[in-house]
Amino acid sequence: MAFAWKQAGVSYNKYLSIAAQAIRKSLKEQARAAAERRSGNELKVSRWENGKQGETKYLGTSEQ
Length: 64
Hints:
Layout: H1 4-7, H2 12-26, H3 29-39, E1 42-49, E2 52-61
Antiparallel strand pairs: 1-2
């Protein structure tokens, strides 16, 4: 028996993103606003050399 998200042709991470978005949309207005503020993610990368962190580059957010 295959999982529904595999049958739909999406990755597990995309499935989780879709599920979280559906849950946030079903919340009442005040709870929805709080959940939306928590939903944003940032991506940053740092190069490490000789055990020390170099410059950090911000690559953006995961907003869809």
